[in-house]
Amino acid sequence: MSSRDLILGRVRRALADARKDDTPYEQAVSRDYLRRHGERTAEETVELLAENLTDYRAIVHRSDAEHLPAVLARLLTARDAHSVLVPPGLPSHWLTGVEQVPDRAESSPYDLDRVDSVVTGCAVAVAETGTIVLDGAPDQGRRRITLVPDHHICVVHVPGQVVSSVPEALERLDPARPLTWISGPSATSDIELDRVEGVHGPRTLEVVLVSEQ
């Protein structure tokens, strides 16, 4: 008997005496919690996102659509990044003057590790938690391309892609898609609380907040 069969057997035995007319899970669990904490304008929500991103040690930049290519070029030059991993749906005019490495299914982790940087969009950003969510859309690519390279630049359109809370973010997301929730650069701590960054994801996360106005 496999571990899976063992666990499912235990679940079936635990549910054996449950009445068929028992309260459905959707009704049994209370959903009356606050969907957000306080009322904020769109501008205040974006400022809260920037503040919490910074608290998580992400590096936040501001731009508008016209100047975004110049901002990206400056950030990549500062990192001395010559090769950039690019999702298939990333707007072509965003990047110039660098080797663009396409997101290929056959790329190995070693191939991805040799890339200097990766640039993506996002699905939604959560102000209250300073979290960016990727869902594998064409401007974000496969999940692994944002987990292996050491430097990730993520473009967030504000205020359109920013929500206040996690419940509001979940309403925008498809749970069947490959969701990646990012709160700052990858980091972990040992028992002595010594922080180490870049363990299971990018060591450096830069977020460009692009004004839609």
From TrEMBL:
SUPFAM superfamilies: NagB/RpiA/CoA transferase-like. InterPro entries: FTHF_cligase-like_sf (IPR024185), LUD_dom (IPR003741), NagB/RpiA_transferase-like (IPR037171). Residues 112-210 form the LUD domain. Coiled coil: none annotated. PANTHER family: LACTATE UTILIZATION PROTEIN C (PTHR43682:SF1). This is LUD domain-containing protein. It comes from Streptomyces chiangmaiensis.
